[in-house]
User: Fold this.
Amino acid sequence: MDLITLTLTKNHLWSAASILGLAGITYLSNRYVKNTVLTTNQTYFKPIEVQMQNQVQMQQQMNQFHNHKPITYLFWNGDMASTYLLIDLLLQDNIIQPLYVERYTIIKELEKDKLELLVSKNVSSNTNTTITNTNILKDSKGNYKNKNTSEFLKNISILKKSQDYELTQLNVLRMMILAQYPEFKNNLLPTTYITTIAKDLEYTSKFYNALRDIKPIHCDGIDFIEQIVRFLKHYYKLKDSGSSSRTISRPRIIIGCTKDYKNIKLLIQLIKLNIIPYNSNKTKYTTGLDSIGGIGGLDSMQFALDIPILDMDNKTVKFMSVEFFPNDIMQYFLKKEVKN
Assistant:
């Protein structure tokens, strides 16, 4: 009898330990997955873009071209400047990987709880009462900053409308470009849509400490550049190109900033301080930053940003686009300008 009781007791203990162990592993796994999602780059492709390009054919040709034609990465938001660069690069027979940062999607996920709370209060309280001094936004150290709630919600709404507009613009322009240039089909890869950007406290601290030292009069929106650099620093497709050897060519990564960019002076300062990695190699375009030579982060990171139209203003880009774009694409932009 004692033997039976002992056996049952051991079995019960083993079963209980197994259940607890499984529960613990499940908890840790779920926590690990959640933390990983929040601290790594997350991207996706739109199925319709993959179908339009015929992915099987693309992969076959990519395998042939990879050793001879590196991919050029372009941050494309559908505006005239980045579209001008896109078409120009495609006409030069470059393989282009467009990148688009869904800024509203990223902020919405980071501030999900806060947004839900504020929206619920806004909807349920249909009064003239304004909630003020609610901690919403975080500073570079992760601490919340006081921000007027209504202003925050207004800015979020504007950002959402802007993102919706840009996403529509990207779809329309892709179809128009491929209709005009069917030969671009295999060189214009499906856009990589970025929904989460890896956390990097070291780089973020370095970036915002530089801003604190510079004390710029205006810096609203410069965080987008910080996000771009942080994404690229942890972008798996660029990892293998991070050799310190100068014999290995770095991938070309392009952003379409002109000298009319509202943070242009601050951008140049950050480049000169080595905060933003910059490609100082001269291209067919000229840039005022070519004089800074080897600095700009080329030795500290596996990539460098190329800003080929930095010396051009928006009027010049528009003039060149009129001469450069097919008529229907240019008319599309002009109609958008009239509506706006």
